Amino acid sequence: MECVADDEAAVHEGVPGLMVRTLGTILVTAVLTSAFWIFYYNVSNAPLVALAGEKTTVDPAKEPPVTIAEGVTVGPAGLALPVVGVKPGELTDTYTQARAGGARSHDAIDIMAPEGRPVVSAAPGTVEKLFFSNGGGGTTVYVRSEDRRWMYYYAHLSAYAPGLHEGQHLLRGAPVGFVGHSGNANPDGPHLHFAINRMEPGERWWQGTAINPYPLLAAKPVSR
């Protein structure tokens, strides 16, 4: 039936008219096809967020590709557990434990893991400070959230992730460093000291008000 319709159109329009109409159809189809592939390319090459068990490559801010670690677990609040392979049920709430002989509270949680286990970014943000504190957190990373309201603090690392630098944008699950015992941590108990601080406008990387990361990562109420 379509062939008959085309033949009738040729009789009424003439061969030149049919050719123009056909050419127009081809051009429209080509434009739509090109638009689709441009859309597909942009979407498929957009930065991706790692979910549990995935591995992908991202290109944040046109920087060198970063491989997201396998085995990343996303907690109930949307934060990735910052040590690869650790599950929510394995966490312990050490937020209120005493430190410095009772002079201060911990204000963080310790995530126990073998030396060298990969540490990843709990949330998207920008590396604001790489800092070494010999008598404190040792090799540390401060990552400020995209809305600048939160600071994520990673301490006692054995080393930074290759290429990590201040000003770098990180996606959730992007490599930060490796579990260690630098600073004042016990060599017999390598772990990640992980803290979250609520930041007010104008506060610097070492400031802010601590909140307990445990319920955000473990989906459990805080310990009493």
UniProtKB/TrEMBL annotation:
SUPFAM superfamilies tied to this protein: Duplicated hybrid motif
Taxonomy, superkingdom: Bacteria
Keyword rRNA-binding: no
Domain M23ase beta-sheet core: start-end pairs: 105-212
The keyword Disulfide bond belongs to this UniProt entry's keyword annotation: no
Membrane-traversing stretches: 18-40
InterPro entries reported for this sequence: Cell_wall_metabolism_enzyme (IPR050570), Dup_hybrid_motif (IPR011055), M23ase_b-sheet_dom (IPR016047)
Required co-factors: Zn(2+)
Keyword tags: Hydrolase, Membrane, Metal-binding, Metalloprotease, Protease, Transmembrane, Transmembrane helix, Zinc
Protein name as catalogued: M23 family metallopeptidase
Organism: Sphingomonas alba
